[in-house]
């Protein structure tokens, strides 16, 4: 590790020396929203006199351009905003901050995204999806709850976990193989109400980006994807209040400057109120029931001086369900403290301190069976990331990440008069670390490479105990106890990343990427939806890190003056150390869980087609994915390959928004997918007077195909130039033609003929209307 860090430092010094030998100066600064003062992520800064020379702003709106001395015209571009042109005389390095004003919306042209028009062709990004919250809010939603994760599920290469759920699968990876970050803090369970809604309140979110492949070297820890969500910073110009009253919840957001143009804050809250209506019931059993969730997002930022800026953000959310005899609650808490520092006009650093906690509790209130069951996973981390703008053709990123994990899978405490026994499963801790270096290198005007290397390590530590087993790996023959911080097992490895882009012409390009990822924490679950009592476990003596290698290639093309963008991507992913369960596995409160797990390999491959219209009265996208996901695990399915539950051969989505008038907007979504794979009984036999089922091969059958249409209509009261208050009404219809999509299938004896078994399909939603009132001032 020391040698690698020393090599990185020497390399940077050599590059810096080479750059200083050239007679060049640097222009740097921030690109911000004129109305709110927030930094614009991914804004384009180009030099009119030097075609092909330019740079994009980073996650905080910062840019840096190193140019020969001279006079230049700089163009600052961000789709949906008025392009700014600035003339500069570069005789010495200088700083230039620019604020961009939003375009006024007209019926002639409605732009649904704030990316550069040809970003999909000219940027290095592939297998990457970026969505703006304003776009997501135009989509119809279940019970009027705007949901970022459900919008992500409408993208190519992404599969849903099931009807109404917010779990998602990316290119054949499991739900635990997605790294979800909220302001850089990991979110381990992103679901409310058993997965029907996600924990992300759209009113508090600024930017959403999903990486399905080509994951940058600064990110790791999961095999399949990165969902990077950034919260708003708060308006540093003026006070703003917004919110809404919906069918099941209400929201309120307040943002304002603390010191104008220097610091600001945002507070955003959301709560459902089904429990309030329970209290109005005359039925005592219903009256005492609880069922609600809440979210609170908070963030403040402070500009200390020209070189230092501080951000503090937090998220707190919880679900509560219960009755007189039963209780259950679960939730997430995250906190980040980030310090931006400019060492020079070309070296930008960000240091982040991170806390994340996912916990749940459930139990019985009945005296004879009273108990409380608790579990949690906590993370304490620090990230030190650097961006070095070497020159217009090279942008270096390097840094160090360290995370301390604390796993407490389950602890059961009985009541005073309860027959339930005390139980505490094996708790443990772990230290995860990584160092990385990458470079985005423009080789020629047409060819650009992004290459990097990540070195990660993981150490499973005490306190804890490890069982020793006999040859059958079923019966423990010894136990080894480990003290606090004592090493139990260590793993590590190199994770190379490389991507290439070649521009064929002004409107088309081809791209390719390869990345290897390692995953050291694993979710133990046998459900398709994100249940709160799923358990996260670390790599350990018997559970090895999961490994995935993915290659992808794509063709990207724009049409009709960038009105339409289109892409075709193909990918192949092979995975090792994949975890699955033995037949009839017992994972509930199992202290020796490793005896129920088997390990094998997996592969996933497919093609993704995507067409998007981003200008005009009618906007939206059409996507189609053809894919296959299989796993081969010795001991399952006679060692033959089998599909996973979320393997869907065909899936497609159509998302449309139509601006009928300045005050009326219509939205429509249609989604289709072939049915997920399931294991079904194919026969039965009798033994000693009892009947036992005979099952098919693992996931050998399919649920019926899934399809659904959602509709919405929004009326926005015309803005009066003398009044700052605006409001709107949105009517949404989920499952507009009342399709009875199968949520699950169970089997039972036929009432008329006990010798026959019948399959019964269950479904969750018919046609579901909702009405939401939104306001802003």
UniProtKB/TrEMBL annotation:
Membrane topology according to the record: Multi-pass membrane protein
GO biological process: siderophore transmembrane transport
Keywords for this protein: Cell outer membrane, Collagen, Membrane, Signal, Transmembrane, Transmembrane beta strand, Transport
Signal peptide as annotated in the record: 1-21
GO molecular function, one term: siderophore uptake transmembrane transporter activity
Subcellular location: Cell outer membrane
Protein name: Collagen-binding protein
Organism: Pontibacter korlensis
